Records
---
Amino acid sequence: MTRSSSSSSFTKYAEELHKLRVAKAKLAEAQDSLAALEEAVMHALDRRQSVEKMEMEIAKVISKEFALHDGPFVKGLDEALQSFKEQYFGGVFVGNHIHKTLQVMIIII
């Protein structure tokens, strides 16, 4: 073998070795990117599941119907509405004093 042919084969070997190292580096970079994407997808799925769970809980709360005996607020509201109903149908809200009170006054200065 001549010196130029051995030099030429060494150069080819060095070039192939460089290509191999570049390919390995790109492969490692691609694997890192893939791992990051997998982690992002898993995080998105977890968030989606938690959002779906919250939506189900909200739907349960919205679909609940409150009976008159459910709590102090509902009882108090029922009593107040019943009182207004009795006053209204009892004639308390009929008369000139109520009409004058409910009129909007326009004051021009």
---
Amino acid sequence: SEPAPPDYPELRITNMACVGGPCALLPNTRRPVPFENDSFKGEVLFLLRGDPHYSELVDRQQKLVEIQIQGRFKSRPKGVVFLGFELDKKMQLDWIMAGLLRLIVAFVRTRPNGKYFHNSYGQSAPHTHTHAHAHTITMQIEVT
């Protein structure tokens, strides 16, 4: 049988689009986790560096994290497709890190799809979140 995935007790991820309501999204599961919302039905695999089972995908390519999503839109999307994430609390940043993040965000917004990048580190919204044009924040999209 396959070895169990590593345990990351300090990491808690909730997939808000699971079938039947929010569910835990554990990293490095051996099978993708199904999810569904009003617009999309599919599966997600959240991979973190350091698991020998996924070393070819993550470690060899010097990635810290890889998120794989496969599925179908329930109807043809109209307009821009966004991907995003949200943290359950405000980020605690010192002035150096906050300044560095402001520079990075300013640079991202100068890019061709930068106008579709939205983020908050908890100052203007109850939670830290980032949403962006899917083509801006992904390395690869395959449409079949």
